[in-house]
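**Paired protein data**
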Amino acid sequence: MSEHMYSSDDVAEVDTGSFTISYRVWVNADAAELWQLASNPHRHHELDGGGTLSAQVTGPERLAEGDTFNIWMRQFGLPYTLKMRVLTADHEREIAWQHPGKHIWRWAFDPADTGGTWVTETFDYTQVKPLMIRGFNWLGIFQNNAKNMRASLRQLQKRFS
């Protein structure tokens, strides 16, 4: 994606294919610093713009492909714990983990030509069963995730401004 398409202040929706929701923003930090944050599940609550993640996590301090971690969450007023599995851990480039429902959360870091990093957050539901997709629609999960992703990226941008 061309950097000149968006102002560095904008959180912009990007097309990453069918059955995905993705947003991108420029952050005034290098990819290594952002990687340190996103690859540590004990810090994921610092990335959460929706307020669903707690600081209570079990698992490694630095995620690698194949690792699992448990995270305590709260949504719709209900507390629950989920075991996530890391699918991708490309150092300083991309980290992705899969939810038990088969959807994937992905953070990608692309160094900008003029400094800083373009950060893309993606909710990928290509592997989610059709019945679950209908449930997500009914519950407003897609709209809520999009809103929370934008908030997460704005929060990340502000943190490093």
About this structure: The longest strand covers residues 78-90.
